[in-house]
Amino acid sequence: MSGVTPLEIVERAVTVLRNINAFDGVTVSELAKLSDVPRAAVNRYLVTWVNLGYVARDEVTRKYTVTPSVLQFSSGAQRDDWVTTHVRPHLIETCKEIGWPLSLSTIRNSRLNILESTDPESPMIIYPMREHLVLPLVGRSAGHVLLAYKAKEVRAVILKSVLAADPYIFSRAKLNNDKFESVIRETRAQGFAITKVLGVNWATLSVPLKINGNVDFALSNRFHPTATALEDATDRFLEPLKACAQIIADALKSIRHA
Q1: CATH class in words for 6-71
Q2: 75-256, what's its fold?
Q3: 250 neighbors 211 (Cβ within 8 angstroms)
Q4: Can you give the pTM of this predicted structure?
Q5: Could you please report the per-residue DSSP string of 194-228?
Q6: pLDDT tens digits for range 51-100
Q7: DSSP assignment, residue 77?
Q8: Most CB contacts within 10 A, which of 97, 138, 219, 245?
Q9: Looking at the chain, which residues constitute the CATH 3.30.450.40 domain(s)?
Q10: What is the pLDDT of residues 158-179, one digit of tens each?
């Protein structure tokens, strides 16, 4: 750390922690590249945060995630009352019908924020998704749905912010600008997105929640593609997912006008 000022050390640490929070599991090498911080320094931060209980390491994948202790620092980590009251019961009901868990997500700070999920209620999930998860917008079906329904100018601004924070997001999702725009057009045309998440054994099927012509939320169904092929998932889950999205959209429309 020779030649690095105390302020720069703090800035590096915050950058690394922010990147851990941005992904559902990230390796030391990925953190070093994303944060532009030497691997040795990243390792020192991780050892400290794991000992303090702010970061957890998966012994199988060797990837790091933040713990609820870190999320307590964020006001955005508080569950919205309207989600618990008007959304969760419908998610649970549809989860019982199809087995696999559902989640509601939105865009906050140019990232995909999971507001609610039924992982605890699903009999299919071995490793539940942690609460208040923050994910990249690109490479996730919910992110593609939410971006597909934004005005072109708004989408361009969001993607500019996304790329500024994570220049490698397209390459990790095995996409380029042209391929991504094609995905966005296809998503808008068919009214849903289905994506196999690279590097992990899960996929998601997502549909928009349309409220007065606006799409600020996406409803997703997460499943293991080794258990249910993507084609079968669309046939089995799309209609129940759309029906649930419509019920939730109607509920949210009524409380917003109340």
Answers
A1: mainly alpha
A2: Beta-Lactamase (3.30.450)
A3: no
A4: 0.69
A5: EEEPTTSS-EEEEEEEEETTEEEEEEEEEE-TTTS
A6: 888 888 888 888 898 876 665 555 444 445 667 777 889 999 999 999 99
A7: G
A8: 219
A9: 75-256
A10: 999 889 888 989 988 899 989 9
